Amino acid sequence: MNKQQLTAALESIGMRPGRGLGQNFLLDANMLDYIVRLSDPKKGEEILEVGPGFGALTSRLLKSGAEVYAIEFDHRIAEYLRTHIDKENFHLTEADACRVNYRELLGNRPFRAIANLPYSISTIFIARMLELPNPPQAMFFMLQREMGERLSAVPGTKNYGALSVRTQLRYEVKLEKIVPPTVFFPPPEVDSAIVSFRRHDRYENDPELCRLLPGVVKTVFAQRRKQMGKVLRQNYGEAKAEAALKAVNLSPEIRPDRLTVDQFATLTRSLFEFQHNL
Domain check: are 263 and 175 in the same one? Predict the structure, then answer.
């Protein structure tokens, strides 16, 4: 779909893209093809696509033979998709992607998520994916560059934070490509990035850790400029704080943005006094 076709589609439903909904439609065919090559959808596999827009990426995913489960919030676009995509492997849900019951929609079946993700929901939506009992096997998202840099950040950098740790607990995250505003209509005010999330198995057999670590990470990064020892003592008590830091062999003066994901895992187990479930 080129700009002229997109403009015609917008006019046909009496719509102007809404900044509040993060509606920046990806037009560049080369970029769309790159996302498909990178994600490599397979015939019969289940793909979750959030914010399909007018179907530029959707049509490519459907062509692969994948079962595409699309979530569209805007009722006008949803109606357009119903009338313009007639494929048995296309499954459309008109809803807020941050509120969908994914266990009901996808069950416990393996799936991947591929999307030009609406920027206004990216943080909340990715957090929802991380909280699922059956999170995606992999995710490939177009995101704001700043968000991509936060998610893929390493310890000791300014972008490394709670969301970085929570995401990397389950996924190997890589910023694959920086994308300029010119490939979208309307163009956003910032650069974007294509980011890959490939699930690893380091903590697959440790559901208690996956449940408890996000709370610990949120607590310490809420006061990221403070020394870890002080924050841990305030929230978990002196004895547990000292034991946890000793378990990780860290000084009480260290800041949270210096800890690796593995160190946060060890810290969490010590705070809540449980062992790795082998």
Answer: no
**Which amino acid makes up residue 118?**
P
CA nearest 22: which of 130, 127, 144, 139?
144
Tell me the C-alpha to C-alpha distance, in Å, between residue 150 and each of 47, 85, 139, 147, 173: 25, 35, 16, 5, 10
Report the amino acid identity of residue 182: T
Residue 277 lies in a domain: no
What is the per-residue pLDDT across 59-118, written as a single tens digit (0 to 9) for each? 999 999 999 999 999 999 999 999 999 999 999 999 999 999 999 999 999 999 999 998
Q: How many domains does the chain have?
A: 2
Q: Is 142 exposed, middle or buried (0-12, 13-18, 19+ CB in 10 A)?
A: buried
Asked whether the beta carbons of 162 and 112 are under 8 A apart, the reply is no
